[in-house]
Amino acid sequence: MKKSFKLFLAAAFLVTEFFVIALPMLTTSARADGAIQAITHAGFGGGTDVTTRMMLLRARRVLKQDMQLVNKKGGGGAVSMDYMMSLPADGQHTLTWTTGHAVSMALGKTKVKISDMQPLARGTDDPQLFVVNCKAWETKFSEYKDIVKYDINNICD
User: Fold this and answer.
1) pLDDT per residue over 50-95, tens digit each?
2) Taking 60 as the threshold, does the pLDDT of residue 47 lie above it?
3) What are the structural domains, with CATH classification, of the chain?
């Protein structure tokens, strides 16, 4: 191979590395002046990602301020919560919180506690279930069976 072709390949490799590795990291971690970061645990195109993007469209108009989406995947939401808590408490960061985050907290995947966060708004009407241990149902909550819509005998063994 000619020396000039090897030099061209080396340059092309370095430029490609910049666009593949460095540029996405710079655009994800850098915050535009005055922009509010909306942090989500979801991957690109997932339900929570799309919900957060739709919220950004409306919030930009209402707040008359730029907003930036930041995807921090991993740990069932633990990475996104840890990232938010590592940022200054300056009102420039929001987190799209889901029940998956609650599970991560319950499993001890993060040191973030519910008391570390303040809800701002409910973003969706996703179904939420309140559950109890079947033994607790038998001893404490069975008096409410007339308002529960499930046949408890079919759920609890």
Assistant:
1) 888 988 888 888 888 898 999 999 998 999 999 999 998 888 888 9
2) yes
3) 31-116 (3.40.190.150), 127-157 (no CATH)
Return the CA Rg of the chain. 23
Q: For residue 128, give every residue at least 6 positions away whose Cβ sits within 8 Å of its Cβ, in sequence order, or none.
A: 99
The set of residues, in sequence order, having a beta carbon less than 8 Å from that of 73 and lying 6+ positions away, is 41, 42, 43, 79, 80
Q: Which residue has the tokens 């000619």?
A: 2
Q: What φ, ψ does residue 69 adopt, rounded to 5°?
A: -85, 135
CB 85 within 8 A of CB 117: no
User: What Å distances lie between residue 7 and 14, 21, 38, 117, 142, CA to CA?
Assistant: 11, 21, 42, 53, 77
Instruction: Give, to the nearest 10 degrees, the angle between helix 78-86 and helix 99-106.
Output: 90
